[in-house]
Amino acid sequence: MGKEILFHMEDASSVRPHELEYLEPAITRVHKLIHSRKGPGGEFAGWVDLPLNYDREEFNRIKETARKIRETSEVFIVIGVGGSYLGARSALELLQHSFYNQLPANKRKGPEIYFAGFNISPAYLTHLLDITREKELTLNVISKSGTTLEPALSFRVFRDLLEKRYGKKGARERIVATTDKSKGALKKLADEEGYTTFTVPEDIGGRYSVLTAVGLLPISVGGIDIDEIMKGAAVGHQLYGRESLAENACYQYAATRNILYRKGKVIELLATYDPAFLYFSEWWKQLFGESEGKDGKGIFPASASFTRDLHSLGQLIQDGCRNLFSTTLWIESPAVDKEIDKLEEDIDGLDYLAGKSFHFVNNKACRGVMAAHASGGVPSLKITVPEQTPFYYGQMVYFFEKACAASAYLLGVNPFDQPGVEAYKKKMFSLLAKP
Ligand code: PA5
């Protein structure tokens, strides 16, 4: 089974053992709500057993389609917003070369990959069109509802480009639609045009969909081993399927954040120590923000990329309003490490680090920051992931999905709806005079 993701509190005083014990009955109830799928929003709990019962036939079709895209494309554009792109982007950034798109083609496992449809910026779209103009292009348009404005607008522009460049028939070969199995404008268009189509399962909402075709197709196009991701998620299913709080790191995390929330810690800062985590943090923010923030409740999920943000947000975190706690997401063994060389002259005074690795220094920074935060009144949680690999990416996704559902149930809200997202859409469409 390999190593486990570990959870621990840096400062024992913020949450005392008896406070966790008092939550044991609540965790037992929450566990039953999740696994029986009888809790609020239970019709969207398809992600719970997905690592075991995912559609193998579709999974193989994903790998086959990804292989074809890798062979025929220089650029692959993923069009989607929220849960329809953050999962794929988080995996690609965490598991690929930091400058993947800039690598020579023979050093990449697939085409350059870009994202669109997550904003309404004319500059972003125009500049993306500029850099893709001369290259063989394939699109993956992803929208569960099939009606979201941001991806629909970007898709309109790129579809037109493909049809002008390759003709209607040629364009058809270069568009993959991932959407609902029967409803929505995208499904209708995909059926009429005969696009290759993948389905977002009915019982899985956008922010829980990274382990479906929504995330897996773009991840596989990026040359990442999605079998390993699903294996990691399956181990996560087993480890975080334990009912007992004492044996389940995922429930310990959920219970701890709930206790801190009740003590007025209304902001959670996810602290990571490698820029490769920037989009994992974005995925995490959507997962927790949309799942918990409702009915006048919810922890505000914020993120910081350390050590960069110690030089911008560090002062506020250490010394500002005491309304936050931090959760450090730490990778025990990163995908890449580098030794610090001894130079002939110690002109920069850094020879005391010679022979050590960058990861070693990063680890000391992390430990120093956590100790400083704890002493500054910032409760400090730590989640330690053994390795930066597809396997542990899958396990991490499952860990956070389960922790998020448990946190929302502990808070007394439905983890799987997002009624608040509709409010801006109504106002915007009225201002746009949508018929
Ligand atoms: O989690 C969710 O359901 C949302 O954030 C959606 O992922 C997001 O709004 C995009 O929706 P759709 O896939 O329908 O275009």
Which tags fit this structure?
alpha/beta; 435 residues; single chain; binds 5-phosphoarabinonic acid; 5-stranded parallel sheet; 5-stranded mixed sheet; globular
Q: How does this model look, in words?
A:
This protein is an alpha/beta fold and 435 residues long. Helices cover 47% and strands 14% of the residues. It contains 16 helices and 10 strands. Strands 1-10-9-7-8 form a 5-stranded mixed beta sheet, with helices on both faces. Strand 7, helix 12 (278-292) and strand 8 form a beta-alpha-beta unit. Helix 5 runs parallel beside helix 9 (213-221), helix 5 runs antiparallel to helix 12 (278-292) and helix 11 packs across helix 15. The longest helix is centred in the middle third of the chain and has 24 residues, at 149-172. The radius of gyration is 22 Å and the shape is globular. The protein starts with 5 loop residues before the first strand and ends with a helix.
Q: Strand portion, in percent? A: 5-15%
Tell me the total number of β-strands: 10
Structural class given helices, strands, pairing? alpha/beta
Order of helices and strands: EHHHHEHEHEHEHEHHHEHEHEHEHH
Report the oligomer: single chain
**Unreliably modeled segments:** none
The helix tally amounts to 16
Gyration radius from CA atoms, angstroms: 22 Å
The bound ligands are: 5-phosphoarabinonic acid
